[in-house]
From TrEMBL:
It comes from Daphnia sinensis. Residues 1-25 are annotated as: Disordered. InterPro entries: Methyltransf_11, SAM-dependent_MTases_sf. Residues 73-167 form the Methyltransferase type domain. This is Methyltransferase type 11 domain-containing protein. One of its GO terms (molecular function) is S-adenosylmethionine-dependent methyltransferase activity. Pfam families: Methyltransf_11.
Length: 223
């Protein structure tokens, strides 16, 4: 059975034509994109408002001064706003993964990615990607109630090269509203204690982050 995540964060199982691990092809390029384009317009408005998740995490990414050839995975890529920003700074070796084929259709049309994986992450799902593949995983707006939780850490770490970077940005206020985020930082620190990853740079607090909330950018390094 395949599953996909909806925009409001809920899941719909067995979406027709959605196979976990599917790689996009050119034949998908011209499917109807109206609602995706509307979503993207709204996201671009947010980017322009100087208060958005993609912009904040890419700024932190650029501060790391990583190699331009770094192999990057845009995690829960949505319509590709992170990749657009990365590409504008010369980082073009980018793949994407997202649970929704239709969310990715627009970015596919824009030819942002080298490989494009349609697959859920978290819970029992395993990314259709070989271990030790990426220099950098970057996830903007991915960790949120109903989307991605700390149970995804192990598989994200698996597909990152030893020494590679796993970075994400998220709102600071999920702990009190979502039981699945109550122990989020404890899970991070458990993996630090167990020698699986370390903080590459300290967690950064962003004020304001999105919709008036504060945010964090985490930058971990796989050991
Ligand atoms: C808020 S958007 C993030 C978009 C993008 N990273 C950005 O910053 O513009 C959430 C995306 O995550 C995807 N998604 C949500 N939960 C998922 C999961 N568990 N596995 C895979 N994709 C998921 C949705 O399909 C949607 O495209």
């Amino acid at each position: 059975m395949s599953s996909t995540a909806s925009l409001d964060g809920s899941y719909e199982d067995s979406m027709p034509g959605e196979e976990s691990g599917q790689v996009f092809t050119n034949k998908d390029k011209d499917e109807p994109l109206k609602w995706i384009e509307k979503f993207e317009t709204e996201m671009v408005d947010l980017v322009d408002s100087n208060c958005t998740e993609p912009k904040h995490i890419v700024k932190t990414f650029l501060e790391l001064k990583l190699d331009r050839e770094s192999r990057i995975l845009d995690v829960l890529a949505g319509t590709g706003l992170v990749a657009e920003l990365l590409r504008s700074h010369g980082y073009v070796n980018i793949d994407a993964i997202d649970g929704r084929k239709d969310m990715l259709a627009l970015s596919n049309k824009k030819q942002l990615y080298k490989n494009f994986y349609v697959s859920l992450l978290g819970c029992q799902y395993t990314a259709p990607i070989q271990s030790d593949t990426y220099d950098v995983l970057i996830a903007s707006g991915a960790f949120a109630p109903g989307q991605l939780h700390s149970d995804a850490f192990c598989d994200l770490i698996r597909i990152t090269k030893p020494g590679g970077i796993i970075m994400w940005s998220m709102r600071t206020d999920y702990g009190p509203i979502s039981p699945r985020f109550a122990n989020f930082d404890a899970h991070i620190e458990d993996l630090v204690t167990n020698g699986v990853w370390r903080h590459y740079v300290p967690r950064k607090t962003i004020k304001p982050y999105v919709h008036g909330s504060e945010g964090y950018v985490y930058t971990m390094q796989r050991i």
